Amino acid sequence: MDDRITIIEGPTPDFETIDDGWALGLNESPSLYDLALTRLRTFNGAALVERCHRAWYRQNHIYLHYRNPLGMEERVPIMAAQSVETEQGQVLLLWVRRKHEETEIEIDLDDDEEGGEFGN
Predict the structure, then answer these.
(1) What is the pTM of this model?
(2) What is the mean pLDDT of residues 34-57?
(3) What's the distance, CA 67 to chain centroid?
(4) I need a surface site. Which of 24, 33, 100, 108 has the fewest CB within 10 A?
């Protein structure tokens, strides 16, 4: 049970895509992943961060377990953790690694009607 942090109740966590310089170093891997940050309210943030530190010290993985919007259980590896105190109580900040999802690239050809860089 020490290899996971489980969200017992509440909605699916929001994952914010990040591009912070230091956090990008967590993504070094032969596979393509997206890094995301999620914020979770908790009563024992320091203990959860300590659980992460123990797993990493033993060179093990630790995962965030949660239910997706369809109610299916999912898990993502936790790459970094921090507990912060706010006016509403403790918040656990988790940087997680998610599988790279295909993104749709939108090309707007109407912007280059004036000739642009390669125009006449």
Answers:
(1) 0.74
(2) 92
(3) 15
(4) 108
